[in-house]
Amino acid sequence: MTRHPILRFLLPASLALNAFLAGVALVQWNGPHVPPPRPERMIEDMAATLPAADGQILRQSFAAHAPNVGGRPRNREDMFERIRTVLRAEPFDPAAMSLIFSEGRKVRDQIDDSIEAALVEAAGKMSAEGRHKLAEWRPPFPPPRR
Question: Please, which domain of life does this record's source organism belong to (predicted)?
Answer without folding.
Answer: Bacteria
